[in-house]
Each structure stands twice: as C-alpha cells, then as structure tokens.
Amino acid sequence: PLVSSTPMLQAARAGGYCIGAFNVHTLEMLQAVVEAAVETESPLIIQSTVGTVKHLGPDYIAAAATVASNANRIPIALHLDHCTEFDLIVRCIRAGYTSVMIDASHSPFEENVRQTLKVVEVAKPAGVNVEAELGKVGGVEDEIVVADNEALMADPDECAKFVELTGVPTLAPAIGTAHGIYKGEPKIDFERIGRIAGLVDVPLVLHGGSGIPEEQVRRAVSLGMAKMNVATELRIVFSDAIKAVFAKNPEENDPRKYMVPAKQALKEAAIEKMRLCGSFGKA
Ligand code: 13P
Ligand code: ZN
Ligand code: NA
User: Fold this and answer.
1) Hey, where are the domains in the chain?
2) pLDDT digits (tens, 9 = 90+) for 18-51
3) Residue 82 annotated in ligand binding
4) Which of 24, 33, 207, 243 is the most buried (most CB within 10 A)?
C-alpha cells in the first residue's frame, strides 16, 4: 500500500539524505520512476500537479500508484503538488493520496497559516503528510506562475513561527531555487537554509530541482533539505525521446514504439536524481 511521506522524510532529514519527488503525467512516466526507485532501492514520492489531477483524475493516478506500491517492497508515497484548492486536496485524500501540498504562499502569512492549518486538521487524522510553502518559489509550475521579481525568500523566524502555529509536518521554504530550467545557475541562499534548519526540525523541501548543479544539491541536502521536487527535466527527457523516434520515423503509429524509449530515458534521468539525493539503498 501507499505510505505517508512523513516518516520517510523524517528519516531522510535525520540521515542527511534526500528523497526524490517526481512529477508524472502519464502511466509510463509513473512506471519509469517506480522502476528507477526499485532498481536503486530508493524510497519514492510520486507527485502529480493539479493540472495532471484534473487531466487524468485522482482515482486513476492513485490506482496506478497503489498497484506500484503493492507490487514492490520499497516505500512509495503519492503526493499532490502545489495545490491551492482545499476541495481538491480533500478529493485527492479520499482517492488515496498519502501526501498533499497546500500552496498558499501567494497569500499573506496569516492567511497561509489559516489555510495550512485547515488542511493539517483533515490530513493528520487520515495519516496523510502535509507540505506548505513559505516565501515564493519563482518560475512556472503548471498553472502557478511567479515572475522573477515576485519570487521571495522565506524568512527563518517566520518559518519557525509557521511550523509552530500550523503543526505542518514538512515545509518548503523559498531559498532561491525556481521552477523550470535556470538561465544561468540558481542563486541558492545556503546560509538561509542553514538558519531555517536550525530553527525548524521538520523535513525541508527543495522545489525547482531541475537544473540545480550536483554540488549545490548535495550542499542543500546536507543542510536539511529532505525532499527534492523534479518536474521540468523529466518532461524534457521523456518528450525528447519521443521526438527522436518521430524524427527517425514520422510514420510511427504504435504508441509502444515511442513510449518504451521515453520510459527508459526517464528512468535513467530519475536514477541520476536519486544518486544526487543520496537515496540509493535507503528503501
Ligand atoms: P522543476 O520543474 O524545476 O524541476 O521544479 C519542480 C517542482 O518544484 C515541482 O513542485
Ligand atoms: Zn514546486
Ligand atoms: Na528548476
């Protein structure tokens, strides 16, 4: 069965490693990250954005993730990424999601506390993990767009107060990463990660995982980042493999002929992220 991501993330923070959380949009993408995790004995968080939940339906996604969790020994959690709608969070929990993100980071602090608390109150009794965001992660993630000049770093004292007021079990503080591929290198505020981790003992979540150089990922993880979200890079790898098939054979019309190489490419990319996370053998 699917498990809550809270214990696996607490173990990761305590153990100084990180768990890859991968956004998937199709059955093959889900299978690819599962195969990557099984092969490397990594704990796994499968994620879907609100857009994908609306596209596929939460029940289909939860069913596929449940099959994967029943068929393998590794712990697998299913997470709803960047959700701003309370009703959809409840629907996903009912469908079988074991982790949800309430993203009220666009709202003032008090409103973020209020909305997060409301989600914690329904999720905790159901044994479901909750993630909230403080500050604003820049870039484009599905339906959420934050311009560079609107991105905002999380304040460490606010993080401490937020966790105390909401009891949220995992926190995503904005510390300089962004959704999408960076133009240059990300400007991560490591000192800020350290200060937040010093004040807050819950596992921290690193958003914007695509395009962060290996050294920076390792440093962020060593400071307390216990979950790394990866979306854009995986979509690119998967789509590029499909494009390569059609470039070679524009007449191809057997979905397996382009899905199999796409799945393989995605699996390899996910394994590489799990290596950066240090999650090999932690399942
Ligand atoms: P990337 O698209 O940069 O990998 O960010 C993913 C993310 O943070 C999903 O919540
Ligand atoms: Zn994100
Ligand atoms: Na990114």
Assistant:
1) 5-277
2) 999 999 999 999 999 999 999 999 999 999 999 9
3) yes
4) 33
Ligand 1 neighbours by CB, cut-off 6 Å: 23, 81-82, 141, 179-180, 207-210, 229-233
Q: What is the pLDDT of residues 218-276, one digit of tens each?
A: 999 999 999 999 999 999 999 999 999 999 999 999 999 999 999 999 999 999 999 99
Distance 178 CA to ligand 3 centre (A): 5
Report the candidate in 193, 205, 167 with the shortest Cα–Cα distance to residue 77: 205
Q: What are the structure tokens assigned to 184, written together?
A: 């240059």
Surface-to-core class of residue 125, CB atoms within 10 Å of its CB (0-12 exposed, 13-18 middle, 19+ buried) = exposed
Q: What's the CATH fold of domain 5-277?
A: TIM Barrel (3.20.20)
What tokens appear for 180 in the block?
């999408």
Residue 138 Cα to ligand 3 middle (Å): 9
Q: ipTM score of the complex?
A: 0.99
**228: burial class by Cβ within 10 Å (0-12, 13-18, 19+)?**
buried
